[in-house]
UniProtKB/TrEMBL annotation:
Family per similarity comment: Belongs to the serine/threonine dehydratase family.
Domain Tryptophan synthase beta chain-like PALP stretches: 14-302
Cofactor: pyridoxal 5'-phosphate
Signal peptide: none
Organism: Salinimicrobium sediminis
Keywords: Lyase, Pyridoxal phosphate
BP GO terms, sorted: D-serine biosynthetic process
Protein name (Swiss-Prot/TrEMBL): Threonine dehydratase
Keyword Lyase: yes
Amino acid sequence: MINKQELSAVHERIRPFIHKTPVITSKLLDEISGAGLFFKCENFQRMGAFKMRGATNAILNLSRKQQEKGVVTHSSGNFAQAISLSARSIGIPAYIVMPSTAPQVKKEAVKGYGGRITECLPTLDAREKAAEKIIDETGATFIHPSNDLDVIYGQGTAAMELLEDYPDLELIVTPVGGGGLIAGTALAVHYFGKNCKTIGAEPFEADDAFRSLQSGKIEENESANTIADGLKTQLGDKNFPIIQELVSEIIRVEEEEIISALKLIWERMKIVVEPSSATALAAVLREKEKFEGKKVGIIISGGNVDLKNLPF
């Protein structure tokens, strides 16, 4: 496992390529929750999500020879944009495998950041085969969206910044999808928090992480019928051991609770966030007694929404 000094070095490495995002508070949401809430707004990060951090760290850790041949990933969402923008910032090629069913708005965003898109059938097998073909043809290095240690360490820098600003936080809550954000957050809390715990939030409709902690092995979702489209992926063998060791618990939330929390953030905080981000606030509101009277950090993971497909 990475040590405290190495995690600090990650932050220094990526600092020139990322924004230090703001922390926003809301007296009304404090009153509703009964807690002191501190929202780390990664929706204001470059390309609109925390994934810029991990993508940048992973690319910077490649050798110059590897960088020259470029990077490849498969993603239909934020990581596709993150790799594309990170690669452009560093001046190397980025090859992005996207399912043909990905929203056109996301494809256009990837192209806008300089990513070279290869479309494939909407299956994991098709994605992996398309990525392997690109690797064979170009020599590009594959970077996984969440199950890569350099990506995980980069994602942890959001919580590091939050704890720098508010070192007395008692809990930090983050959404759980592929596991990169919560694993990185848990490492940051472990090294930089003071009696602070990491808690995850995920939908009942995609509760593989909750079940994985219960069973002690990585579980899959048979279906993932959730509005939180960024949380439909599953944990990996790199991030799961970190989550097992350092995450206190994962709270599951209903779809109506996610939508309610999403509306609260849009209406009361006046910021655009995606449904996946709202799961963390939904978890706090679902189990108020757990958070009552405590100082709670909430990672707003991103703000890339399809405005034609909002639940309200």
